[in-house]
Amino acid sequence: MKYKYWIFFFFILIASLFSCTNRNHEDDWKKLIESEALLAAEQYKLLYANTPEDRMPKTYFSDKQEWETSSTSWWTSGFFPGTLFYLYELTGDKELLELGMDKLDILEKEQHNKRTHDLGFMLYCSFGHADRLRPNDKFKQIMLTGSQSLSSRFNEKAGVIRSWDHGKWEFPVIIDNMMNLEFLFWASEYSGDSTFKDLSLTHADNTLKNHFRKDFSSYHVVDYDPDTGEVLNKETAQGLHDNSAWARGQSWALYGYTVMYRHTKNEKYLDQAIGIADFIFNHPNLPEDLIPYWDFDITEEEQKHRDVSAAAINTSALLELAKYTDEPRSTDFLNKAEYILKNLVSDQYRAKGDEAGGFLLKNSVGHFKANSEVDVPLTYADYYFVEALLRYRDWYLN
Prior knowledge:
mainly alpha; Glycosyltransferase; three-stranded antiparallel beta sheet; globular
């Protein structure tokens, strides 16, 4: 009988130690997220103060102490107000909410922009959060009009949404375009018009069929014949070469197919997202800290430039993907997301104070081959970093 009591008390002790360890783990993360959010809030107020009223922040050059801004027609224009809204949710600081709302005034006109496929980034990452925080019929109408503008770029023969109107291509589609489909799902749900959803499904299916190699890596650009729908070429624009795996492209794909599973619960999208994650995190060229170089296929001599933006996108995507997968994958994805976050907040990647002009993360790469935005902070890196902090707090902390 005494032996049975000892066994009982042993299991009670183990359970208590596990509970205590888990509680300490959660407390540590709560403190980390709170401190990061408060620091980020002050940095983004600084960034707001140094951005002209009619412009959006784009990057900052520390060596010259100069900000670079963009017009609202630039593809990243929705990330700044979106990050302000996320930071408001993390801190409860109403000033951040008002600053984000203020920036919507200059962005509103982009609802009529039919020359870009990036309206999801521009409008859903901004007005979508604004409407979620302060439901407003005007916001909804702006987004619905923007969804119609985006849908005008769909080609029925090819079954995809055109990405660019420039360059050598006939009808180019880039992997980035997967990120704008969430916007069309919203439009379908809000309007009751299934056309938006149908376009998303068709685009996602044709991208799955034509953009990916057997190892789940993605081409950057697939060019279609707009008259027949035939695939003409599979190439790159921002990657190392046509058959390489451009790091941020893999991140867009991971996030995009995770979102597709969220909206459809179709297992093929979940399988695709898991396959992409396995490609990224099992790749021999992925550094130990899981912050990728700008392309997975660069040689050892070229491995100098990390793309922190890709790591931030991966983190946010993994936090969601972990919710949809069974053990042991779920825990593995969550552990990887935690590990990346801890590395992102280290001195190596996290800007402190005004070090980066108010931006949060250093060392992202926009377009390496064009020598554009190399080793600089970028608004979308910040956006997905803060989104990951918010997701971790709301989804995984009690």
